Amino acid sequence: MWEKDIDINEVREIRSRTLVYFGVGAINKISDICKDLKAKGITKLVVVTGHGAYKKTGAWDHVTKAFAENGITYVHYDKVTPNPNTHHVNEAAKMAADFGAQAMLAIGGGSAIDAGKSVAILMKNPGHTAEELYEFKFTPTEAAPIIAINLTHGTGSEANRFAVVSIEEKNFKPAIAYDCIYPLYSIDDPALMTGLAENQTRYVSIDAVNHVVEASTTKVTSPYAIDLAVAVVKLVNEYLPVALKDPTNLEARYFLAYAALIAGISFDNGMLHYTHALEHPLSGVNPHLTHGLGLAMLLPAVIKNIYPAKPATLADVLAPIVPGLTGCACEAEKAAQGVEKWLFSVGSTHKLEDEGFKSSDVDKLVDLAFNTPSLGGLLGIAPTEATKEAVRTIYTESLKPYNK
């Protein structure tokens, strides 16, 4: 049905440039990656991680062994937090420059990978800062080679050209997208993901669903982005409950990781709009807010807004989680309430009020959505006109649940 929403005369870009080693045991490919780096004359790396997952998952043992076998030396920046900020990037970039690092290896979820991508840009653009990068004061065309070992099934950053880093002093959480930050190599090993906590499992997978709901409905989407979206929602609906019940189930982790990977490729082609543009102010104001939870709280109201503009596409994409949609624009309320019911069924029951946001905060959030660098570009490709009133309505309707 979604084919009805495609203008066949619009020329779109189809992107997928990273070599991803995917599957149980893929971490062993780090040895081949290090051999290739050495053959290219790259023997000094900066490693960017969070505080502990790189070790707890077992990834670090494989990495350090491969480094030793191939004569690779490194410096290690391990201070990245969820919702990384420009200070992390600047500190890691200085460490890389002082060491003379030639490439960047990130180990972690989207936060570590996005911070690492930003470090890789600064490595090739000395004299610039992360603040300048994320306020678009220069346009990079080069970055140091990027290798990503992904430890979550959510962002898709291991296979696309996007990165997000906050400028905390301004409550800004901008996104960048440059061809130079496609990773050279990435590893997606589901066996490294079995230790994800229940909430991490829940919210990274909800992140993937949001990626494709948005990517399939922008003004610049493509059949490729939509086709991937249909697959992603089906897979998350089927395997997220399994992983929540049995975190060690490798089949569930495999297909959730695959869903997240192709979701990342989907929005690399279709881009994003309301949900991410409106979530970034939430976690810009509250850096401790889990990104996927922020998205979950906004998604039903976004569905209500956009469904009349893309009913055929959304009926197909949402079919596994909201059965019975026919593609009529009149179904916006049903679709929004159905998505909220599904979110609640997988344990995502919080709304904005539960996370401390009040109706008095809405005007500030609206201003940030329109004033944060890069977010205007996302709002500009939303399928409906992204007026301040429309954005205010989405925030307001996200304060409390639709389903009482």
UniProtKB/TrEMBL annotation:
Domain of life of the native organism: Bacteria
Residue ranges of every copy of the Fe-containing alcohol dehydrogenase-like C-terminal domain listed in the record: 205-398
Record bears the keyword Glycosyltransferase: no
Domain Alcohol dehydrogenase iron-type/glycerol dehydrogenase GldA: 20-190
Record keywords, A-Z: Oxidoreductase
GO terms for cellular component: cytosol
Gene3D superfamilies linked to this entry: 3.40.50.1970, Dehydroquinate synthase-like - alpha domain (1.20.1090.10)
SUPFAM superfamilies (UniProt xref): Dehydroquinate synthase-like (SSF56796)
Sequence similarity: Belongs to the iron-containing alcohol dehydrogenase family.
Descriptive protein name: Alcohol dehydrogenase
Organism of derivation: Candidatus Avelusimicrobium gallicola
